[in-house]
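Box 3.1. Reading complex inputs
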Amino acid sequence: MAKKSEGDMEGTKKHIPIEEGLFYVPSTEDDKPYLIGAKCKDCGLATFPKTPVCPRCMKKDTMEEAHLRGKGKLDTFSIVQAALPGFQAPSIQAYINLEEGPRIWSLVTGCEPSEEALKIGMDMELVIAKVREDPEGTELISYQFKPVEK
Amino acid sequence: MRDVSIIGVGMTRFGKFVDRNIQDLGREATWKAIEDANVSTKDINIAYVANAVGQQLTELKGTIGQHVLTSAGVFGVPIVNVENACSGGSTALRSAFLEVASGSCDLALALGVEKLFCGDSAKSAAAMASGTIYAKFGFMFVALYSMQLRKWMEKSSATKDHFAKVVVKNTYNGSLNPNAQFQKPMTMEEVLNSRVIAEPLTQFMCSTMADGAAAAIVCSKDLAGKYTSKPLIDIAACELVSGTYSFPDEPHEEITTRAAKRAYEKASIGPEEVDVAEVHDGMAPAELRLYEELGLCKEGEAAAMIDEGKTTLKGTIPVNPSGGLAAKGHPISATGLAQVAEIVWQLRGEAGPRQVSNPKVGLTENAGGWSMDDNAACSVTILKR
């Protein structure tokens, strides 16, 4: 059974994406989130966040929007005991190698902020979770990754 | 292209200066460089002024170079504003160098100036992270360094003890530098027992904010004798690169290595000819990675370099004789030119108690920003006496 983490959205608080156009927020229980990336029609390279020009082909108009399903492996991580104003410490910041290819920066949620809870190479999956609240109490939500429950 | 020499350098002390504004800091560094070069303000044909976050943290909302330099008595000539994150200062130097090398003008000023303490440390911290697209998610450079180090440690024999040794070395050097923010040497215990910020990094392994400014005056080599009788320090290379995309399952060449290769080629030297180096130890342990990426040692030998004391003031290749960012602090755009000032003093033999033994070739490395999952900019400069 998946643990409910602090980061998960709950209750009736208003929440808005921290940035538009980066991820899809599921609207029903059965719906799945995904990342909004891009894929090159010529060489197949996938990017996230989406790039307007393929960094390999460097031609105009070869990139099209692609939905990345958010499965990947933990490339490296940091448990940060300091935070920018408005953010909570500790946070877990990481790089994830997505199945589709891109290595992406992400916050990690759904586990203790401890060295024992995370292992480089472990399976990770996409969740949409709260990053912080703005001064009016609105939850700012984002794509994040959590360790896959075995 | 003409040969170009640095004929004057100057810097403020780096630190927290609540009563000084950005104009005041820039004026002091500019005038120190002018006096060191023995030129007058009228001799300056063009000026490049680097600043990263002045628009966010000061009352100036544009053309900061003009605001700073007019207060120093430099105006009428082209003043070009430069922003390139932590590499801003060295980017300004490269532009000034190319102006003179191309023959477009004879004498140019490069200034880096930063005012980070604004009375609201939260605002300063946010400004320092503002150059990345992930800032709104809480991205922090300390996390980035810690992630890179974690990966690097997997293939290296370096431990936290080695990281602490870098801080011990750099804070000792800083204790001999009147321009350093922190002039107290630290012990291994102090570094290792300071609070963990982001494993494996402890508080004293991380560079801190600072206010400050640094400047250099470059001149066509054949005209330099008109102004100065000091040893001429030639710019053998001043290379700048931006980051590259990491393709899945393909090796990704480190940005520093790419910049260094270009610089060595331009200067027609190999890394073994470098006698002294100032490198960007934004988090002190990163200095170890830079030994390898700059070719100062082979891959896998960085830990041995610090163990054997090779990079101390008396070692075979002293690194960060100024104390580096660890002791000086990091006023973003001023850092690159402060590194250059230190190497000029070292090559002239003017570095006082932290003078290294008779160096002929010096190197500076300065990287920063974060874009496309690589540093946004990296500069490597090679200076020769």
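In summary: The longest strand of chain A covers residues 123-133.
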